Amino acid sequence: MRKQAEIHDRKAESGWRDYRRAFLAAFPHTIPVLTGYLFIGMAFGVMIQEKGYGPLWAMFMSLVCYAGSGQYLAVSFFTPQAVLTDVIFLEFMVNIRHVFYGLSLLERFAGMGKKRLYMIFSLTDETYSLYFITKAPGDVDEDKFLFAIALLDQSYWILGSGIGALAGSLLPFDAKGIDFAMTALFVVILTEQWMEKKNRPGVLAGLICGGAGLILCGPDNFILPSMCGILGVLLLFRKGLPGGGECGEDSAGTVEAGREQP
C-alpha cells in the first residue's frame, strides 16, 4: 500500500510539473490576448455595471458564459421587453462561426480526454488563432500546452470583466469607443498569421470571401456566407495548400498516440 501511495504521489507531482511547464511555455504566446482581453473585458464590465450588476456578476457571467461578442449582445437584452426566442436566435447567429472552428479541431481534441469538454467550451476567435500560429516546445505536452492557452485566455477575460465593472462603479466615465480594442486585437492576430508564409493562402481566402460577403450581403448578414465561402475555398484547394496533404495524417497520428496513452 505504501509503495502504491508513493507511486501515486510521484505521478501526481510529475503531472503538476508538466502542467507548470506547459503554462510557462504558453504564457508568452498569450500576451497579445492578455492586452486585448483586459480592455475588451473591461468594456463589457462597464456595460454590465451600467445595467445594475456588480463585479461579481460580471466575472460570473464571463466564467459560465464565455462568449465575447455574445456577452456584449446579451447585455443589450437585459430589459423586460426582451423576447427569449430573439435572444436565442441572435446569439446563435453571432456565434455561428464557432461551428466552423470546431469542425477543424475535432481530431485534435479527440485524444484529450475530459479536458476536451473545456476545450470546446473555451474556444474563442483569439484562442483558435493561437492554436494554429503557436507550437508547443519539444519538452512540453501539446495537449497540456493547448489547455494552458485556453485557461489563460479565459482568466484574462474574467479579470478584465471584474476590473471594468469595479471601475465603472467607482469612477464614472464615458466608455464610448473602448470596444475597438477587439478590432485592434484581430488586426494583431491577422498580422502574425501573415508573417508566416504558409498561412498566407488562408488569410487571402478570408479577406476575399469576407470582402465579397460584405459587399453582397451587407454588414448585418455577411458572416455566415463568408464563413461558408472560406470553408469551400479551403476544402477545394486543400491539397494545394502548404501542409494540406499531411494535415490529416498528422492529426490521425496524434489521435492514435493519445488513445494509446494510459
Features:
14 helices; 262 residues; mainly alpha; single chain; disordered C terminus
Going by helix content, strand content and strand pairing, the class is: mainly alpha
Based on CA atoms alone, the radius of gyration comes out at 21 Å
- What's the helix count? 14
Helix percent reads over 70%
Encode the helix/strand succession as letters.
Answer: HHHHHHHHHHHHHH
Q: Provide the low-confidence segments as ranges.
A: 245-262
Overall pLDDT: 79
What best-fitting shape do the alpha-carbon axes yield? globular
Count of domain modules: 2
* Residue fraction in strands: under 5%
Termini distance? 21 Å
Q: Strand count, sense and closure of the main sheet? A: none
Total strands: 0
Write the layout of secondary structure elements.
Layout (H helix, E strand, L loop, with lengths): L1 H25 L4 H20 L4 H10 L4 H8 L7 H11 L2 H7 L2 H4 L5 H7 L3 H9 L8 H29 L9 H16 L4 H18 L5 H14 L7 H17 L2
